[in-house]
Design a protein that fits this description.
The complex is a heterodimer of chains A (299) and B (279).
Chain A lengths: L4 H34 L18 H9 L2 H30 L6 H13 L2 H11 L7 H9 L16 H26 L3 H9 L4 H12 L1 H17 L2 H6 L11 H11 L3 H27 L6
Helix pairs in contact in A: 2-13, 3-7, 3-10, 3-12, 4-7, 7-10, 8-9, 10-13, 12-13
Chain B lengths: L2 H32 L4 H6 L15 H9 L2 H32 L5 H11 L4 H14 L6 H5 L6 H13 L3 H8 L4 H9 L4 H16 L3 H6 L8 H10 L5 H21 L1 H14 L1
Helix pairs in contact in B: 1-14, 3-14, 4-8, 4-11, 8-11, 9-10, 11-15, 13-14
Classes of the chains: A mainly alpha (299), B mainly alpha (279).
Amino acid sequence: MIRRSRFTEAPAAWLLMAPGLVGLMLFLLLPFALAVVLSFTNLRMASPLPLEFVGLANYTLAFQETALPRALLNNLLFALVVVPAQTALGLALAVLLDRPLRGRTVFRTLFFLPVVFPLSLIAVVWVLIFAPGPDGLLNAALGVLSLGLWEPRDFLNDPSWALPAVMLTSIWQGVGFQMIVLLAGLQAIPRQLYEAAAIDGAGRWRQFLHVTLPGLRNPLIFVVIVTTILSFRVFDQVRIMTRGGPQDASNTVIHEMVRTAFDQGHVAMGAAMSVVFFVVILGIALAQRRLLRQRGEVS
Amino acid sequence: MSRTSALLRVVLAYTLLLACTLVFIAPVLFMIIGSLKPDALVLAEAGSLRAFLPDTFSLDNYRAVFERVPFGAYLLSSLIVNGLIVGLGLLVNAFAGYALARLRWWGRGAMLGLVLAVLVIPFEAIAIPLFYQLSWLGWRDDWLVQAIPFVANPLAIFLFYSFFLGLPRELEEAARVDGAGVLSTFFLIVLPNAKAAFASVAIVLFLFHWGMYLWPLLMTTSEGVRPLPLGIANFYTLPPLQWGDIMAFGVLMVLPVLILFVVFQRWFVRGVASTGVKG
């Protein structure tokens, strides 16, 4: 094309790029570098000790003396339950809505509704739903459904129920997101493929296995990766519903990080946890690239 | 397929959909109806059908929200912070996305690589050092500190970048041949044709930040600059616990989002799906 524009465009390009570039540098890259540096120091809030480098001490101590290992395990459990459950439910809803039903936009809107609610609000409402005793909404509902066999419990203060309660809240809130992405993916699958499969004698179930699932490959990988990453970022619900308790039963990495750095003032240790957290996320993101590359579909 | 089995399928689909609707709508209804009931009855009646079919309605809880906490101040803070993030964010990220997608300049490849690389850094991983960094500068506890760090957004840059790549070049080239500069081409030719991208990115930015809880929790101490999510969390821990008031706060908090959602539903769906399809 116009050769000279190479020279005339550069100043404009830098001018357009500059505000975004400065923002990314100052508020993403710099603090990230700082997290790595701080994690090797002894920085504490309002501490009289001089700042010094302590090597890997924060990392070893974080794994030995804080709830970080338990928190990582909880995040892993969270991902192992929430990711498959939410994806399966999202897929089921998307398949249900991917047909010419009257009122499907209404249903779609209703299922998507929780996604637009702030998590802090949802957490507070679900605290009430999980209320202890026979008068709690969930306890009462389970009592009716089990014909009175259900024994009411204090979900959020019970070590074996606190984490599942947070999981349930998160699935309820997030499944609409999965549904919308998968629905968009479903609508991109050419109808002819289904017709061809039907002519070959494939029933509904075989069509689903051999046309729908392969056609949804990329959206499915995408929602699985995003939900996995979100599973490791869980904070708001935990802070409001359980504060990580009882006995760290529902503690998560970010919650432990905030508690260490802010509630206890141990900034350097919190920074070390941030770095551990970042490494986990990076691992997931790299796995995503691998998965998408296998078919050479990444642009 | 016979007529009866087709009919059966439709009935089955509707039954499933209605059952799901119940699960999705029950907590929301519970909140709305709880907000209209006397405080003591919200919890006491949660276990019976009275939770959804109350015998008395009143707006007392809504009055209490305004009397017990500075609801107006929380709302104002949320609106200002989100207005800044979305307003400035659209400009800054669209600029960057356009420079990366359309202009030829030395450094373009490196900048694109940088944007894709920082896309991986989750906010939670930098919350602590960023808190320290800004506290050293003495910058905390105002509206700007809640907004400015989130204006430049790698995901938004990437979404704009992909959108501009797909836009036909002809119009821009015609303008450039007519002697228009890069900036005037951008504002006069590209912007009017990019409404869909702007709407999607605006909604994604708004959804990400309206519920923001961790950052304002770290950075703010005065009620005057705290946003709604902190307001409801504070309210929830403020004795005496009055569930009716809390539910009323919740309804008021989600109302602006709901109005936006209902009006711009198509764009919400498209915006969220676009992060997925291109991501």
